[in-house]
Design brief:
heterodimer, A: alpha+beta, six-stranded mixed β-barrel, two-stranded antiparallel sheet, B: alpha/beta, Rossmann fold, four-stranded antiparallel sheet, 7 helices, binds adenosine-5'-triphosphate, binds magnesium ion
């Protein structure tokens, strides 16, 4: 009886192909959108996570400058300062920065003097970000070498002009040739290329391979700057990052005087902030898609109501030959479930296809979440059931004589 | 005598715009099992209304309806649908077949609602169609059949569940006289097998094929006579 009812329902869905498809469209789009958006959301957050983890494990960033502590960052409670412009420009010297490395829990320290410069090889020039730093930079920032070596402690003491190129710069200036041993000019001053970094990709939309590193004292003289803008540090372990941050805060506060002019940020904090932003975004989008599922349900209800009034006579005939109220209720409910079920299946199919295609084009790991697919499909069925109930009940409640007298 | 149908002062009224509209007035009628009865009367006299009540498609406003010894007055819709399923076969003027189903499927419907297994449904439906002479047309849809053939499919549907009472409302109303005759011949045969027939008609020729004629006018029985062959 049940299987026969499903047969009857499938048949009436089939007989009104166009109408059925249009009815199912809302469900198809809803289910497809939920699956696609959730999959893309997961893809985005896992790729962001991977990117950020790639920046350096247990990375801490100290930024120094007027007002930097007021914005996003991980500084401890604000100290009130009436007027920042009256305060002397904040400054952190190289030796002070190196002292941060002695703080308990800090594994490495890499002060950075950053600026831009022009690299030249023959007639080829490229404008790049110059990073004046110390040997520990490589480990703290998680760079691997493609060729040669990174800066060494020796480079800091013997005053040689050496430079390590990011993979993009090496490609731009030298193409496929191994540049190690060659000379490039930095703002006109010749430097010997000692190494090329391996490709690391992008993080948060920024290339991490487009810069050149030189010893920090060379950068100071080249850029005419003696103040450090950024110090990168690595914590010994992920678990004591918070303690290290507060020790850094204290130290810097005693040197600089106001927490508004420096900030200490942990990679893990950025990660968790971003993850939670991503998660709420995914949730929001899935919610919007969920609403379209409900709209799809209303579409089903609408069509079912039309169908009930069109088929009043059929209902009368069925009742005359012995159909009970329950049998009619079942018939129309099954029809609603068949519509939403087929719609749900098509939605899962199109959602999976869209997920794979879009993941590929965004460069995410393509993934398919069975749980989400089941959930969306189940929700579609539930929507069909809920919105099918009223029309089905209306059909079942028709009095046989009224149904038969309708022309 | 064993009365199959007993109506006692049966009445039906509708409330229209606050006014009570009496369609049937205290109809009392007894029909013995196996009788072939026709009900005649002018249009609007309440013949179909009476048939709907007899067929448990509608409920009376007053009076008592006893079918095969069971008082059906005041039964729930669920109980009435069971009576329809087990005891009553309908034949309508406009055939009332489902257009999307073929002959066998239309005839199977009453069996489906009795919960009979699909293979048996098919066997019995085919047998019923054979009984009405439509062996060759089993897989035709209603729109591929003539009016007379459609009405025979409807008769097969009324027979298939072995209902003891067949109610027919103007069964020949949409047919030419030849196919009408064929239908009436079939009625006579089926009645001879013991089924009780109640046929509503305008047509005196149709009424004359029955054993008894009840005439109603304005919802009341005005004449009740035996047909003498
Ligand atoms: N639901 C209803 N509400 C109000 N009046 C109704 C309703 N159904 C039927 N009637 C009235 O009941 C009366 C009898 O109708 P019925 O269909 O029984 O007549 P009939 O004898 O079968 O006529 P015909 O020969 O034309 O088929 C009619 O006057 C009709 O208008
Ligand atoms: Mg009538």
């Amino acid at each position: 009886m049940i299987s026969q009812s499903i047969g009857v329902a499938l048949r009436s869905v089939w007989e009104q192909k166009l109408r059925s498809i249009l009815t199912m469209l809302g469900i198809i789009i809803g289910v497809g959108a939920v699956i696609t958006l959730v999959t893309l959301g997961h893809g985005a957050s896992s790729s962001v996570t991977k990117n950020i983890e790639g920046l350096g494990s247990n990375l801490l960033v100290v930024d120094v400058g007027t007002g930097v502590g007021e914005s996003f960052g991980g500084t401890s409670g604000a100290t009130t300062v009436s007027n920042t412009s009256l305060a002397p420009p904040p400054n952190l010297t190289l030796s002070e920065a190196q002292k941060l490395g002695n703080i308990a829990g800090v594994a490495g320290v890499a002060p950075v003097v950053a600026g831009s410069g022009t690299l030249g090889v023959g007639t080829t020039t490229a404008s790049v970000g110059l990073v004046g730093t110390t040997p520990q930079y490589q480990n703290i920032m998680n760079y691997k070498l493609q060729e040669g070596r990174f800066l060494t402690p020796l480079d800091e003491t013997d005053g040689e002009n050496v430079i390590v190129l990011g993979s993009t710069e090496a490609q731009t200036l030298f193409g496929a040739i191994n540049p190690v041993g060659d000379t490039v000019t930095v703002n006109g001053v010749p430097f010997e290329v000692v190494g090329v970094l391996a490709n690391k990709g992008t993080s948060l939309g920024q290339s991490e391979d487009s810069f050149a590193a030189i010893p920090i004292d060379r950068a100071e003289s080249l850029l005419g700057s003696t103040s450090l803008s950024t110090v990168y540090l690595s914590a010994k372990s992920q678990s004591n990052v918070t303690a290290v941050i507060s020790r850094l805060d204290q130290k810097l506060l005693s040197w600089i005087g106001t927490s508004q002019n420096f900030s200490v940020t942990a990679q893990s904090q950025i990660l968790s902030t971003l993850t939670s932003v991503q998660n709420s975004l995914t949730l929001l989008l899935a919610g919007v898609a969920g609403i379209s599922l409900i709209v799809g349900g209303i579409g089903i209800m609408n069509i079912m109501l039309v169908s009930v009034s069109e088929r009043t006579r059929e209902i009368g005939i069925r009742k005359a030959v012995g159909a009970s109220r329950g049998a009619i209720l079942g018939q129309f409910l099954i029809e609603a479930l068949v519509l939403s079920g087929i719609g749900g299946l098509l939605g899962v199919g199109s959602g999976a296809a869209a997920s794979v295609l879009l993941s590929k084009s965004f460069g995410y790991q393509p993934s398919f979440h069975t749980g989400i697919a089941l959930l969306a499909f189940g929700f579609a069925l539930a929507v069909g059931l809920v919105f099918g109930l009223w029309p089905a009940n209306r059909a079942a409640g028709l009095r046989p004589v009224d149904a038969l007298r309708v022309e | 005598m064993d009365q199959f149908i007993e109506l006692e002062r049966l009445g039906k009224s509708y409330r229209m715009a606050g006014e009570e509209l009496k369609i049937l007035h205290e109809i009392s009628l007894s029909v013995p099992s196996g009788q072939y009865l026709s009900v005649i009367g002018p249009s609007g006299s309440g013949k179909s209304t009476l048939m709907h009540i007899l067929g448990c498609l509608d409920v009376p406003s007053q009076g008592r309806y006893v079918l095969d010894g069971r008082d059906l007055t005041g039964l729930s819709e669920a109980a009435l649908s069971q009576v329809r399923r087990q005891s009553i076969g309908f034949i309508f003027q406009s055939f009332n077949l489902l257009p999307s189903l073929n002959a066998v499927e239309n005839v199977s419907l009453p069996l489906m609602y009795q919960g009979i297994p699909v293979t048996q449904q098919k066997e019995r439906a085919e047998a019923a169609l054979e009984r009405v002479g439509l062996r060759e047309r089993m897989h035709h849809r209603p729109n591929q059949l003539s009016g007379g053939q459609q009405q025979r499919v409807a008769i097969a549907r009324a027979l298939v569940a072995d209902a003891p009472l067949i109610l027919a409302d103007e069964p020949t109303g949409n047919l030419d006289s030849h196919s009408g005759e064929e239908i009436l011949d079939l009625f006579a045969e089926l009645n001879a097998e013991g089924r009780t027939f109640l046929v509503i008609t305008h047509d005196p020729a149709v009424a004359s094929r029955s054993q008894r004629i009840v005439a109603i006018h304005d919802g009341a029985v005005v004449e009740d006579r035996k047909v003498t062959a």
